[in-house]
């Protein structure tokens, strides 16, 4: 397979690594983008967007990013904070009254955004619900007891993150996560990224595939992804109805260029993210909030209000291998988005070629 696109002078090794991933069969379809000093210095595409290998991956190919979705769901909530409809540290139950039961009376939006709300998975009772029963899934979270006292434990809210945010936005701001992102956040940041794809964008979407048939069963995060069933079901994930739905924890569809471009301006003092949120909330968005052992990741890490952060980067990855980050040391942004669901070794090799390290390390 041939790599298409461009790599500026000084990025030859990045292109070589990307080509090798294709040549070795580790990759069958992916996009790679690097931004530095306000411009895109690498934009590479390779492979195919479909199993039949008839549609080549292009610079504008969209793909589901899984947990890379979470910072964008967080932005939807933070716009409501900006507007005064919500506050980071008031009880969720002040707005979403059904939620304030069984030990969740003092759960806050900050707990949710930093994965400390004690609901890293949907309750067992939600196992009877369909993946796209948004109202039923929100209700299951409102009715359930947390797995630990909110604020006392840590674990990425793998599938619940978006439904918790959506429930609070509906109750407190009179809108939904999808509406807030697509109508306010996305235009303000000029992002080619969507929760709920419009019909005219469907032709650009890459189909997901497993690198190995038993990949889902070998995931360490599998216990947090089982309810509701279907989030790792390729047939379901590649369906039109899923792509046009909103599942805020995992189904943002976007391009490598859009993600790298977003991370490139993420902490800019005069960039679009700061203009969207305002100085104080922008600082909160990126600041280290909590460091500890994340039970889902299985390692010590630091969460901001949506990202993983350490001394060298602000980053977010998605299960299956997609990842994006801003290098605090080298002042460049990179995004690697893939359709071939495997581990993060491919993105890690690209990071190494850039002088970066994608290891998850908690700030001290």
Report on the architecture of this protein.
By secondary structure, the protein is an alpha+beta fold. The protein has one domain: Beta-lactamase. It is built from twelve helices and 14 strands. The chain has helices at residues 12-23, 70-82, 109-113, 134-143, 161-173, 177-189, 234-237, 240-243, 256-264, 272-277, 279-286, 345-353; strands at 4-7, 29-36, 39-47, 63-64, 193-194, 209-210, 253-254, 290-294, 299-303, 308-309, 313-317, 323-327, 332-338, 340-341. The strands form four sheets. Strands 1-3-2-13-12-11-10 form a seven-stranded antiparallel β-sheet, sandwiched between helices. The protein is globular. The N and C termini lie far apart (44 Å). The mean pLDDT is 97.
SSE inventory with pairings:
Layout: E1 4-7, H1 12-23, E2 29-36, E3 39-47, E4 63-64, H2 70-82, H3 109-113, H4 134-143, H5 161-173, H6 177-189, E5 193-194, E6 209-210, H7 234-237, H8 240-243, E7 253-254, H9 256-264, H10 272-277, H11 279-286, E8 290-294, E9 299-303, E10 308-309, E11 313-317, E12 323-327, E13 332-338, E14 340-341, H12 345-353
Parallel strand pairs: 6-14
Antiparallel strand pairs: 1-3, 2-3, 2-13, 4-7, 5-7, 8-9, 10-11, 11-12, 12-13
